[in-house]
Amino acid sequence: MHRRVLASDRLIAAFLFGCVLFNYPVLSLFDRHTTVLSIPLVYAYIFFAWVVVIAVMAWAIERHFK
Amino acid sequence: MSKKILIADDEQNIVISIEFLLRREGFEVLVAGDGEEALAKVRAERPDLVLLDVMMPRMNGFDVCQALRADPDLSATRILMLTAKGRDTEVSKGLGLGADGYMTKPFSTKELLAEVRKLLGM
Amino acid sequence: MLEAPVVIAVSLIYLGLLFAVAWWGDERADQKRSLIANPTIYALSMAVYCTTWTFYGSVGRAAVSGIGFLPVYLGPTLVMALCWFLLLKMIRIVKANRITSIADFISSRYGKSHVLGGLVTVIAVVGIIPYIALQLKAVSSSVSLLLSYPEIVMPNHSATMSVAADISFYIALILAAFTIVFGTRHLDATERHEGMVAAIALESSVKLVAFLAVGVYVTYGMYDGFGDIFERVNASPELLRLTTAIPSGKGYTGWFSLIVLSAMALLFLPRQFQVAVVENVNEAHLKRAAWLFPLYLLLINVFVLPIALGGLLHFVGQDVDADTFVLTLPMSQRHEGLTLLVFIGGLSAATGMVIVETIALSTMACNDLVMPLLIRHKRVAFDESRDLSRLLLGIRRGAIVVILLLGYLYFRLAGEAYALVAIGLISFSAVAQFAPAMIGGMYWRGGTRDGALAGLSAGFLVWAYTLLLPSFAKSGWLPDDFLTQGLFGIELLRPQQLFGLTGFDEIAHCLFWSFLANIGAYVGFSLLRPPTAAEATQATVFVDALKDAGPVGAALWRGRAKVSDLQELVARFLGPARAQALFTAYARRRGVASGVMPEADAQLVQFAESLLAGAIGSASARVMVASVAKEEPLSIDEVMHILDEASQLRTYSRELERKSRELTAATLDLQEANQRLQELDRVKDDIMSSVTHELRTPLTSIRAFSELLRDDPRMHLADRERFLGLIVSEAERLTRLINQTLDLAKIESGRADWNGCELNLKEVVEQSVAATSQLFREKEAHVELDLPDNLPLILADRDRLIQVMLNLLSNAVKFLAPGSGRVKVMLCLLADGLEVSVADNGPGIRPEDQQLIFEKFRQVGDTMTAKPSGTGLGLPISRRIVEHFGGRLWVESVPGEGATFRFTLPFAPVQEQALAQVAAA
């Protein structure tokens, strides 16, 4: 029961976390003409954040809703 | 023929005192310092009575008693348990395992002699 | 090899493959060995979200707005984090009420209203038909591009269009056939299509593989990786602006509104509702889909920007539409195999979307538009002789054909017009209008039919005015005066700057006004009057879907019905054989062995209604059931009373459950406490028994010897002296035992006196060795000392330490073999204190005994010779003394090689400071 509540809270946290990562103003911090490993910064940032959010969701839901 | 008695106790001073007492009364006395030795001596020497301490190293008095009673050849051997733990459970456990009598330490020498004689039918 | 016959043959073969997979999936479903009972297939089927608008259109969007194509995929990713709440609840509601479409869902929630279901259907059809047209257009464009191979000719000339358009007409017909075969094979009470889902999952895989293939080819085949493409872009300021999030300079509201919009589209697009909710076979599949579907979205987007930039670089100066880059880039390299794969991928994206969307829309159109009309005109209800299942299937098949033809018609009319290009987001905005009624309906009991009707209508009208009509105007179908000057020339009514609102892009603008109108009307009208009995009932069923509500619906039905009437009614829609089987199975479940329910109670009526709901929608089902069952209408007060009772019962049973859980926990606690007490009792008992034992043993000797001496005055002098000596030593033993027992009791209760002072440990050790030298001499043992000078002082009680040392030394000597014994006493410096060790070469201590010897009254020894003559308290006391001063006492021993007792003591605090100062200096 408590595990379920914990996992639910984690998913909601992942949702809110993703909302912050993918929107103004955090997004604007990366929105500039710079490159990482010759890839535009904002492009690299979004895909990186995307992978992180998916990983957190997978971890929260697969591990805790047995 | 004098009766043969085995004293099995790990407290040397107690052994010395009982040995002295019984010899003075004309018994033939054997001594064992632990449970295993006691069992071996009973099998080898066939004493008429064993004075068996409960708290002994290697094999406690209850186990020795049980082993003796499991051997039909030794059914004639009387067993008198001696213990320093005077709880009722211990008394009934000893009697339940087939001991013939039970004495709590410290005991009076007169009572011990009386109990010994009674068990030997004297 | 890309001539028309080849292209057509490959397309037909691919569609044939889909038919085969779908057929196989249905076969397996009939055999109860479901092919799609697999979370990965479920996740893949959700990827029907990615249509040609993604497959071809993402690159087109990226070529104009840079990474502006991404929010449409970030929104669904985020909403999937909430799938365990939203989607799960929707699935539960849909399964419990046999809901078959989103129109049915909304109509059922607000009291099974026909009008509401119809309105939702109309909004869905109006919003989605252009989207279907877009798919047909994409297929026809890709066909006409292929047919001009090896030239790259943009397909906007009417000459080429006619051929390709004909092809897309046939494609529409083929898709209609496909959809009819697998969408309306039989009328099911659950309305699930396993074969179709299997085919959709396959299509999702194909389009992903095709897109990744072209992405890898462009990025690594035509260019030298991501880095190469972006470096070339750096040289062009025109392209460089595409590498930031906001190239158009419209701010982040557009970005944000796309995330919101796409999140709602994922939940409320009819095709998404169909695959994610209606077709769900096992709610546990959500777990995998929650992350696998977002991962799919991520993968299909990785290469979008490189392809767009690569295309812009490659076709610079040429008339090549960015929407076609996915296809034209491999064509320009004469890579025929890849070109064909991409074409099949695009075909997959189009057909998948069209098939699922059409099934969903046709179900809605049949159950929520046509059936209610037929029932209203009493053509169906009283014509009792007819088997209506054929009629129903006919209606659905007709609806499928009509919808696809409407799509084709729209495509032919719109052609290259703006109305088609922008339709993706316009469609999303239309279905987003369902959000307030859907989400409000699932979480708010107060929502009413009037509120939902008002909200949906208002939202739909604002959507049409601010987005749909302007798109018509931009296509030239309407005079665009009203765009620039407002309706009737009133400037405040300009559709894309409504009431003078500027600063938003058109989507954000529409979203804001339509939601304001929608939510405002929904809430406002809902609050005008209390819910009716029917609305309150359904509100409970929906809002409490995740609780174990029990048959609320059945509790709220009162009336009379005949079993035979109900069965006949169901038979008319599902066929007599199926109806018979379903009723028999139901009776068996209720415990009626004969398979014939004796009377129609509320639950049976409910069961019949839910069967019908699966076939004709919940609103129509209610009307049909009412036609054969005499229902006594319940007043709202009665309904509320029953609902109250149900919820009280629920609360009560929850309370009971909680109480019983608490009781169980309390019982466990008590048992544990009792066990602990018994344990303590046993320990105390053991100690008491040990103490008595230790006291009785010397007393036994003393009494026996005393009586012997008393009874025998003529005893030999030698015996007399010996016995008196033994009496004295046993008396000493008794004294020692009493002292140590009291000592230990004092230490343990914390009432011992400690005289702590700084002392030199070396002196203590030397003093103790001197005190025991007599014992060593008696055993002829050798004592070796290794005690360095100038060690730091420690803080401890001198007498207590001597007590410890004496105990260790006398223990050591006790077990030494006479003559050959050696004891080594060492003192050494540790980082934080001193360590003393006493090592002997005695028999050693068995590993299993090394802990025991520190317990009270546990004496261990080689008893071949004699019992060790201690009290069994020396080591426990020593250990407590050492621990009191912050040290540790333990033993190390290998049996046969002796034992080493060690203890440590920390430095005195002052000393520690001094040492630190020395170290610092």
UniProtKB/TrEMBL annotation, chain A:
<feature type="transmembrane region" description="Helical">
    <location>
        <begin position="42"/>
        <end position="61"/>
    </location>
</feature>
<protein>
    <submittedName>
        <fullName>Uncharacterized protein</fullName>
    </submittedName>
</protein>
<keyword id="KW-0812">Transmembrane</keyword>
<feature type="transmembrane region" description="Helical">
    <location>
        <begin position="12"/>
        <end position="30"/>
    </location>
</feature>
<keyword id="KW-0472">Membrane</keyword>
<keyword id="KW-1133">Transmembrane helix</keyword>
From TrEMBL, chain B:
<dbReference type="GO" id="GO:0003677">
    <property type="term" value="F:DNA binding"/>
</dbReference>
<protein>
    <submittedName>
        <fullName>Response regulator receiver protein in cluster with DNA polymerase III epsilon subunit</fullName>
    </submittedName>
</protein>
<keyword id="KW-0597">Phosphoprotein</keyword>
<keyword id="KW-0804">Transcription</keyword>
<keyword id="KW-0805">Transcription regulation</keyword>
<dbReference type="InterPro" id="IPR011006">
    <property type="entry name" value="CheY-like_superfamily"/>
</dbReference>
<dbReference type="Pfam" id="PF00072">
    <property type="entry name" value="Response_reg"/>
</dbReference>
<feature type="domain" description="Response regulatory">
    <location>
        <begin position="4"/>
        <end position="120"/>
    </location>
</feature>
<dbReference type="InterPro" id="IPR050595">
    <property type="entry name" value="Bact_response_regulator"/>
</dbReference>
<keyword id="KW-0238">DNA-binding</keyword>
<dbReference type="GO" id="GO:0000160">
    <property type="term" value="P:phosphorelay signal transduction system"/>
</dbReference>
<feature type="modified residue" description="4-aspartylphosphate">
    <location>
        <position position="53"/>
    </location>
</feature>
<keyword id="KW-0902">Two-component regulatory system</keyword>
<dbReference type="InterPro" id="IPR001789">
    <property type="entry name" value="Sig_transdc_resp-reg_receiver"/>
</dbReference>
From TrEMBL, chain C:
<dbReference type="InterPro" id="IPR036890">
    <property type="entry name" value="HATPase_C_sf"/>
</dbReference>
<dbReference type="Pfam" id="PF02518">
    <property type="entry name" value="HATPase_c"/>
</dbReference>
<dbReference type="InterPro" id="IPR003594">
    <property type="entry name" value="HATPase_dom"/>
</dbReference>
<keyword id="KW-1133">Transmembrane helix</keyword>
<dbReference type="InterPro" id="IPR038377">
    <property type="entry name" value="Na/Glc_symporter_sf"/>
</dbReference>
<feature type="transmembrane region" description="Helical">
    <location>
        <begin position="6"/>
        <end position="24"/>
    </location>
</feature>
<feature type="transmembrane region" description="Helical">
    <location>
        <begin position="391"/>
        <end position="411"/>
    </location>
</feature>
<dbReference type="Pfam" id="PF00512">
    <property type="entry name" value="HisKA"/>
</dbReference>
<dbReference type="InterPro" id="IPR005467">
    <property type="entry name" value="His_kinase_dom"/>
</dbReference>
<keyword id="KW-0418">Kinase</keyword>
<dbReference type="GO" id="GO:0005886">
    <property type="term" value="C:plasma membrane"/>
</dbReference>
<dbReference type="InterPro" id="IPR001734">
    <property type="entry name" value="Na/solute_symporter"/>
</dbReference>
<feature type="transmembrane region" description="Helical">
    <location>
        <begin position="252"/>
        <end position="269"/>
    </location>
</feature>
<dbReference type="InterPro" id="IPR036097">
    <property type="entry name" value="HisK_dim/P_sf"/>
</dbReference>
<keyword id="KW-0902">Two-component regulatory system</keyword>
